[in-house]
Amino acid sequence: MRTLSVVMVALALAGCGDSAVQDAHKAVAYKLMDPGSAQFREDRELADGSVCGEVNGKNSYGAYSGYGHYLARKGADGFQVVLDPQATNPDAAQACGYPLAALPAPAPAPAQAPAAPVAAAKGPNEIAGVKWSVKVASTSAESAAAMSKKLAGYGYAPYVAREDNVSRVYVGPFDSKSDATRKLDQLRRDHKLRGVLVRYRGVGDLPAPAVVHG
Description:
- By secondary structure, the chain is α+β, with helices and mostly antiparallel strands.
- The chain contains five helices and nine strands.
- The model is unreliable at about 1-15 and about 205-214 (pLDDT under 50).
- About 25% of the residues are buried.
- It has two domains: about 20-95, Roll (Nuclear Transport Factor 2, Chain: A); about 130-214, Alpha-Beta Plaits (2-Layer Sandwich).
- β6 and β7 (about 165-175) form a beta hairpin.
């Protein structure tokens, strides 16, 4: 009986610990601006104990920025977290098995002593006739209106589209993907906003800044 009791206690104690996924969630949430807002999906544990998945969290405006990839790599001292919302980190993409996003093409080198100005060709990632926007957040109508007002005050051109009963805040549209990428980098650098590039689908005519479209 004593031996059986010891085994049962050991099993009970083993069941009290967090799983690898739960421990990874804690490490990933710690990296977010608002750890308590972390939402997870598509979690999976790798053979070496690392964890991959997608995480969503609130930004400085209190709105969710949208799901992005993460890799919580298992180490001797815990998890080393890589947040890759734009799918541009090759190590994380290879470990977790998701495709890398296309990067903007580098600017062409200037020609030697050109006889006349030459217009630069569009990069290979550009699509003729396609405009691009930066999706900043998905939130309530009230929060979207407040965020649009702030973005307009910073000198951006925001607009809000109502889709599936959710207000989505965008900046744009831009005539090229490279222009939209530069604006996305500026939003991250200057305002700590994790946006994503999306194709501009159009909401009636080109929207005026800070206008919610029904």
